[in-house]
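Thread amino acids onto this structure.
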């Protein structure tokens, strides 16, 4: 079953067909709650109820199934929202589903799908939200598009996208936006062309390890991932430090950042 099939069930199917759709989805603690709501005659409630599964699936539990549900629900939700008929859909719900679809698609390595979808939905939400409006999800949409562009080595487009004024303004995404800006600068050689500071060797190793340890403890909720990163941090070799001001060091730093990003987004093991 693809997104078009799911869309048709959401829009044209009866209550039993929608419940059957949910029953065939991967197991999740929210399934019973979704089943109690998905049979509603209110199209808005159908979308909102399914969104509970979409968020869980797309954030890592079942990205392939989540992407199908998200694309179908988003298509249906936009139709409802644009119909000018009475509905209870919030615009944040639409952008939330769009963001979930992009996250799942990036996790699946579908960069072309991410870029194509983002090119359609980002302008749509810019017209819907004012710049800097809370809970717009636009920064998240931009970040996912930039990740896909980097995966396809479209560096100039990624730089243009990450510098979009709408990219900043959401405190939960600002750190990631700035990290991607630095990553792009490294790739383009902007950092390696600067003059290396003289008489400085960077932070002392102990201070650097403490900073890394605190950051890991505060930002990685998954116990297994956190412990693995902490173990790697404890075993750092202070004599083996990357010099980002050299071509070799810049390349090593980029490769390391890519591995960390892959580890955090997809649960892969650092090697």
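Threaded sequence (271 positions):
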């Amino acid at each position: 079953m693809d997104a078009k099939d799911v869309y048709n069930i959401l829009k044209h199917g009866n209550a039993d067909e929608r419940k059957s759709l949910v029953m065939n989805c991967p197991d999740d603690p929210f399934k019973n709650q979704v089943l109690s709501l998905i049979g509603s005659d209110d199209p808005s409630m159908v979308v909102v109820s399914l969104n509970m599964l979409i968020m869980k699936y797309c954030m890592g539990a079942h990205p392939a199934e989540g992407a199908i549900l998200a694309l179908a629900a988003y298509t249906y939700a936009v139709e409802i929202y644009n119909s000018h008929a009475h509905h209870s859909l919030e615009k944040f719900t639409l952008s939330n589903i769009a963001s979930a679809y992009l996250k799942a698609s990036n996790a699946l390595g579908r960069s072309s799908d991410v870029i194509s979808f983002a090119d359609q939905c980002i302008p749509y939400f810019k017209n819907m939200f004012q710049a800097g409006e809370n809970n717009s999800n636009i920064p998240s949409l931009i970040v996912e598009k930039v990740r896909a562009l980097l995966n396809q080595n479209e560096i100039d487009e990624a730089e243009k996208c990450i510098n979009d004024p709408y990219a900043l303004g959401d405190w939960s995404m600002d750190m990631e936006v700035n990290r991607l800006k630095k990553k792009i600068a490294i790739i383009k050689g902007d950092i390696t062309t600067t003059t290396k500071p003289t008489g400085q060797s960077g932070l002392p190793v102990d201070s650097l390890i403490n900073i890394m340890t605190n950051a890991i403890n505060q930002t990685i909720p998954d116990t297994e991932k956190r412990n693995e990163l902490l173990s790697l941090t404890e075993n750092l070799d202070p004599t083996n430090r990357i010099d980002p001001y050299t071509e070799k060091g810049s390349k090593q730093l980029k490769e390391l950042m890519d591995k960390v990003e892959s580890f955090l987004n997809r649960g892969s093991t650092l090697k």
